[in-house]
């Protein structure tokens, strides 16, 4: 691989790659505002200027400039090397690039900072980007000058509603055009543009339009300063109080990688941010996914219930035992959930296959919905591939309803409260069951119809593996502590097994994972032990 040097560090690059991107891949940040690894590079902010040594045998390109000399109290002529934007300049073999080590570059960065902050309001204490703003960071690293402008700054529109989800503050905008390019190049809806020039520059929404669609939140996330904020997160939390977990969005089968930000003081989740993964979501998430962090707290099953009344876990397990004991395996359906983790599903399959002796595996989860060619998948479940890996011959939820109506299935043990369809036929069929034991994190028709329900942790409260539509196994790490009486689904399955008299030998997540690795997938011919041979 060809290489170049940046401040003496050797950096490999792919042919055609820019200096800034190759450095960024190596974990070296060349300061920038307008550059984003997923967008085109207009080179309009000039923060990434670097000094490049001339190629062997060539003269350096020099510029004639006038420089203020305080001793002379006048300008004097000087020559400076012409700096280049690292975001547009392609790397070349043997190139010698200087950033921090060049006095000219340091001066240029300082100048850009001063220029950007000429009219920028000093409202960091009330700005939502405070704590993660590039203007603040770079001022500290590359600015640190006395403000020379004594005039009143230019005032521009503040708190402008671009649409239902995004608010724009023109005074804070550094005109990097990232939001404009994102809507054009990624969301494929060029609804934003720039108007006026110089100090009066501002971003605006096309006349007659609002900033709407499935990717409006991303404009806030690409904004390097606090000019764009989401109505959802605005003024809700200070970022320095938040902790983050590496998570996986649960909104659809794409499985976008995300940061799940939470406040440990309140055990509360506040937002999702995209986490870069070039194989899955690159740098983006959709709006529906971005607001789905709320599911950590809404529609949750937080208490064990027996016939609708709150109970202790012990009482619920006893009730489940009395419902299921002695029922022939043939009449028991086990329902895996595409909403739950691979670990939860593996535990239930293990219990069902090894001990209960059922051959009837079905799947549940949410139904299909909107899809596009950017990120959004029609399958609104994060783990459909996962449950199919565990039991490839899984029958559909519709088949379960048919089998209940035909009287073949009398008892159900299910993971997850959701169903793909929530209609009166589903409700009527579930009502016919003699026994319905549900282990679920979220409410839904199955949870509401359950005779016994055990509260499971959601993806935000326990670490779990999810297999996305492409078959990638991805781990969503635990963020907050379990809410209410919730416990990990795999643990509740083990407790249910023990209540039924079986020796479910997994008490720790690592044990579940170690055994999952031994049996990564179940072949089509997966057989279960008949109930008559079940290990008591
Ligand atoms: S709103 Fe933000 S992303 Fe858009 S041009 Fe201004 S600073 Fe850049
Ligand atoms: S595309 Fe799917 S996984 Fe990605 S953010 Fe949207 S809902 Fe979440
Ligand atoms: S990052 Fe290169 S000019 Fe803006």
UniProtKB/TrEMBL annotation:
Keyword field contains Ion transport: no
Pfam family, one: Molybdopterin
Cofactor list: [2Fe-2S] cluster; [4Fe-4S] cluster
Alphabetical list of SMART domains matching this protein: Molybdop_Fe4S4 (SM00926), NADH-G_4Fe-4S_3 (SM00929)
Domain 2Fe-2S ferredoxin-type as annotated: residue spans: 1-103
4Fe-4S Mo/W bis-MGD-type domain ranges (all copies): 242-300
Domain of life: Bacteria
Listed PROSITE patterns: 2FE2S_FER_2, 4FE4S_HC3, 4FE4S_MOW_BIS_MGD, COMPLEX1_75K_1, COMPLEX1_75K_2, COMPLEX1_75K_3
Cited InterPro entries: 2Fe-2S_ferredoxin-like_sf, 2Fe-2S_ferredoxin-type, Mopterin_OxRdtase, Mopterin_OxRdtase_4Fe-4S_dom, NADH_UbQ_OxRdtase_75kDa_su_CS, NADH_UbQ_OxRdtase_ferredoxin, NADH_UbQ_OxRdtase_Gsu_4Fe4S-bd, Prok_molybdopt-oxidoreductase
Stretches assigned to the 4Fe-4S His(Cys)3-ligated-type domain: 104-143
Keyword 4Fe-4S among record annotations: yes
Keywords associated with the record: 2Fe-2S, 4Fe-4S, Iron, Iron-sulfur, Metal-binding, Quinone
SUPFAM superfamilies: 2Fe-2S ferredoxin-like (SSF54292), 4Fe-4S ferredoxins (SSF54862), Formate dehydrogenase/DMSO reductase, domains 1-3 (SSF53706)
Name the UniProt record assigns to this protein: 2Fe-2S iron-sulfur cluster-binding protein
Origin species: Pendulispora albinea
């Amino acid at each position: 691989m060809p290489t170049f040097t940046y401040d003496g560090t050797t950096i490999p690059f792919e042919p055609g790659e820019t200096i800034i991107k190759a450095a960024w891949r190596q974990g070296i940040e060349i300061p920038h505002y307008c550059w984003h690894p997923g967008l085109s590079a207009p080179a309009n902010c000039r923060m990434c200027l670097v000094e490049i040594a001339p190629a062997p045998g060539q003269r350096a390109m020099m510029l004639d400039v006038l420089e203020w000399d305080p001793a002379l109290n006048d300008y004097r002529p000087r020559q400076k090397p012409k700096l280049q934007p690292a975001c547009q300049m392609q790397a070349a073999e043997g190139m010698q690039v200087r950033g921090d080590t060049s006095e000219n570059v340091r001066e240029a960065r300082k100048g850009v900072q001063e220029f950007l902050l000429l009219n920028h309001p000093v409202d960091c204490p009330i700005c939502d980007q405070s704590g993660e703003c590039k203007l603040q960071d770079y001022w500290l690293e590359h600015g640190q000058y006395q403000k020379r402008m004594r005039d009143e700054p230019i005032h521009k529109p503040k708190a402008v509603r671009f649409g239902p989800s995004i608010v724009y503050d023109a005074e804070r905008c550094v005109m990097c055009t990232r939001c404009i390019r994102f809507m054009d190049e990624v969301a494929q809806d060029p609804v934003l543009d720039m108007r006026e020039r110089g100090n009066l520059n501002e971003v605006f929404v096309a006349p007659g339009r609002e900033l709407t669609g499935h990717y409006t939140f991303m404009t806030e996330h690409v904004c390097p300063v606090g000019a764009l904020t989401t109505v959802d997160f605005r003024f809700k939390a200070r970022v320095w109080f938040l902790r983050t977990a590496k998570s996986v969005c649960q909104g659809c089968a794409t499985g976008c990688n995300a940061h799940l930000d939470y406040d440990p003081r309140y055990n509360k989740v506040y937002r999702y941010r995209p986490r870069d993964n070039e194989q899955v979501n690159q740098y983006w998430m959709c709006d529906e996914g971005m607001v789905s962090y709320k599911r950590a707290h809404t529609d949750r099953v937080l208490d064990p219930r027996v016939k609708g009344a709150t109970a202790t876990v012990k009482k619920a397990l006893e009730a489940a035992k009395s419902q299921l004991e002695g029922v022939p395996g043939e009449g028991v359906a086990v329902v895996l959930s595409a909403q739950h983790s691979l670990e939860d599903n593996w535990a239930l399959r293990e219990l069902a296959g090894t001990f209960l002796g059922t051959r009837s595996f079905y799947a549940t989860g949410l139904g299909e919905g909107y899809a596009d060619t950017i990120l959004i998948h029609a399958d609104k479940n994060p783990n459909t591939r996962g449950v199919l890996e565990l039991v490839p011959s899984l029958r559909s939820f519709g088949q379960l309803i048919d089998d209940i109506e035909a009287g073949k299935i009398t008892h159900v043990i299910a993971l997850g409260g959701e169903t793909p369809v929530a209609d009166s036929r589903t409700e009527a069929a579930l009502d016919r069951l003699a026994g319905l034991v549900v282990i679920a994190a979220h409410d839904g028709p199955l949870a509401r119809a359950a005779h016994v329900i055990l509260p499971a942790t959601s993806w935000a409260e326990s670490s779990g593996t999810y297999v996305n539509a492409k078959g990638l196994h991805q781990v969503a790490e635990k963020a907050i502590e379990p809410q209410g009486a919730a416990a990990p689904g795999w643990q509740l399955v083990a407790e249910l097994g023990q209540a039924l008299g079986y020796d479910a030998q997994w008490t720790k997540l690592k044990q579940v994972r170690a055994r999952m690795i031994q049996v990564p997938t179940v072949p089509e011919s997966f057989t279960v032990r008949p109930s008559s041979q079940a290990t008591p």
